[in-house]
Amino acid sequence: MLVFILNAGSSSLKYQLMNPIIKKVFASGICERIGIDGVLKHEYGEGKKLVEEIDMPTHKEAIESVLSALTAGEGKVIDSINDIDAIGHRAVHGGEEFSSSVMVTPKVIETMKRLIPLAPLHNPANILGMEICQELMPGKPNVAVFDTAFHQTMPDYAYMYALPYDQYTKHGIRKYGFHGTSHYYVSNEARGMLDKKRNTRIIVCHLGNGSSVSAVYNGKCIDTSMGLTPIQGLMMGTRSGDVGAGALQFMMSQEGMTIDEALDVMNKKSGILGISGKSSDLREILEGMQEGDDRCRLAVQMVAYNIKKYVGSYVAALDGVDALCFTGGIGENASLIREIVCAGLDGMGLVLDPVKNNKRRSDARDIATNGSASRIFVIPTNEEYVIANDTYKVVSGTKC
Question: Which residues of this UniProt protein bind Mg(2+) (predicted)?
Answer without folding.
Answer: 7, 383
